[in-house]
Amino acid sequence: MEVFMKIVNVEAVTLVVPMKNPIKAPISIPYADELEKVVFKEYRTTLVKISTDEGITGYGECMVRLSPTSTRDIVEYIKPLLIGKDPMDTELIWELMFGTMMNRGHYQGFYIEAISGIDVALWDIKGKTLSLPLYKLIGGNSNPKIWAYASSIRFRGMETMLETAQKFVDQGFTAMKIKIGQGYKTDVMAVAAVREHVGDDITLMVDANCGYDVKTALKIGKELEKYNIRWFEEPISPADYEGYRMLSDSLDIPIAAGEAHFLRYGLKELIVRGKVDIIQPNVCRAGGVTECLKIHGLSSSFNVPYLVHTGSSSAVCIAVSLHLAAAFKDCFIFEHMQSDWSKDQRNPLRWDLTPLPIKSFENGYIELDNKPGIGLEINEDIIEKYRV
Predict the structure, then answer these.
(1) 231 and 293 together in one domain
(2) Which of 83, 307, 369, 371 would suit a FRET pair with 318, their CA atoms being 20 to 30 Å apart?
(3) Which of 114, 132, 150 is the last residue of a domain?
C-alpha cells in the first residue's frame, strides 16, 4: 500500500508559567486552602508538534490540570507508534494509541489527554494538506459566525463581579457565565446582582465546577430558576450520574456537564444515566477530534446539544474548539475564555502563544478565519521562554 506522506518526528513540549503571587481558588474546589497551592500555582500545558516528510507540521494540545510533564512523557513514549505512519490515517492511528492501554483500564486521565493532543495535531496536518480549515474539513459551513459567551465572571467580591460583567457587555458580549460554588446565600445573591446589573436581554449561565452535593444543588437550582439561567453547569461530582438524573428531572434549568468526562464511553453514561440536557467535552482531553466526532454522533442521537469546553487552556485548545463549534450545527454558543486564574497576572499561553483564528467579533458573534488546518501561527519565543 502506497503511503503518500510520512510522520518523521513527534515532539511534546511542556510549558509552565509560575504564578508570581499566590491566588485564591478562582473556582470551587474541596479543601481549597490546601489544594489551591497545587492546582492554581501556575499556568501550564503540553503541546504536541508533529512533522512530516512533506514539510507540513501540525500542532495539538494535551489538556493539563496537574503534573504537565506526565502527558509529555506519554507522548514521547508512544512516539515509535507514529513514526513512518501516514498522518492522514487518523482513525487507524487513534485505534493504535488507544489499543496500547485499553485493556489496562485507561479510559480516562493522563493517557487519554496525551493521545488527544496527538490527534489534534494530526487533524491540523490533514487540513493543511488539503488546504481546508478544520471546520470545513469536518463538514461545517463556509464563513461561519458563532455566537459566543464570555467566560467567566469569577467570585472576587461583588463589586469586582459587577465590574467584570459590565466589561463583558462593553466588549459586545450578549451572553456570559458566572462562577458559583461558594454556598447557597452567596451564590444566589451574586447571580441576582449580576442579573439586575446586566438586565434581561443578556443570557446568563452558572458554573459550580462540581461544588455542591445533590441536595444543595437542587435547593440553589430552584432559587436560580427566578433569574432566567440558560444552563446550570457541573453542579455536582462528575461521577454522580444518579444525582445528575435527579437534578435534570427536578429543575427547569437545563443541566450541563462533560468537561471532566473522557471518550464516548464517559459521555454516554452522562447522557443515558445522568440525563443531562447539554454536554461539554473538551477536545484536548476527551480524545481529540477523531473521538469528538464520535461523541457528537452519540449526543445527536439523543438530541442532546454538544457545546465545546475551553476552560483555562492554551490558545491551541481554544482554536481547535472554535473549529468544532463552527462544524457542529447543534453547538449554539461558544465558550470564549476572557478571564485568567489570576486577576493580576495574564496567561501568556492563552494570549501570546498564537493568535486565535478569528476574523472579527461583533455583536456577540465570532467570524471565523479560513486558514488551513487549525489556523495557528505559533510564537516560538513563548515556547522557548516557558518550556520546561
Answers:
(1) yes
(2) 83
(3) 132
Cβ 84 vs Cβ 38: under 8 Å = no
3-state secondary structure string across 163-195: HHHHHHHHHCCCEEEEECCCCHHHHHHHHHHHH
**Tell me, what CATH number does 367's domain have?**
3.20.20.120
Q: What is the grid cell recorded at 136?
A: 470545513
The amino acid present at 232, given as its one-letter code, is F
The answer to whether position 385 is within a domain reads: no
State whether the Cα torsion 216-219-223-228 is positive or negative: positive
Q: How many domains does the chain have?
A: 2
Sequence-distant (6+) residues with CB within 8 A of 190 are: 155, 158, 161, 178, 180, 182
The CA radius of gyration of the chain, in Å to the nearest whole number, is 20
What is the average pLDDT score of the chain? Answer: 96
The answer, yes or no, to whether residue 3 has pLDDT greater than 80, is no
Phi–psi pair at 61, nearest 5 degrees = -135, 135
Q: Cα–Cα distance between 213 and 192 in angstroms, integer?
A: 22
pTM: 0.96
Q: How many other CB atoms are there within 10 angstroms of residue 184's CB atom?
A: 13
- Give yes or no: residues 105 and 143 share one domain: no
- The answer on 235 and 310 residing in a single domain is yes
The band of 312, judged by pLDDT with boundaries at 50, 70 and 90, is: confident
Tell me which residue of 217, 199, 224, 220 sits closest to 276, measured CA to CA: 217
Q: Position of cell 468544532? A: 324
CA 125 to CA 321: how far, in whole Å? 16
Q: Residue 137's beta-bridge partner residues?
A: none
Confidence category of residue 311, pLDDT binned at 50, 70, 90: confident
If asked whether residues 59 and 207 sit together in one domain, one would say no
Which of these, 315, 278, 317, lies nearest to 295 by C-alpha position? Answer: 278
User: Residue 186's closest CA among 209, 155, 217, 159?
Assistant: 155
- Give the tens place of pLDDT for each residue, 33-49: 999 999 999 999 999 99
Range of the domain at 111: 7-132
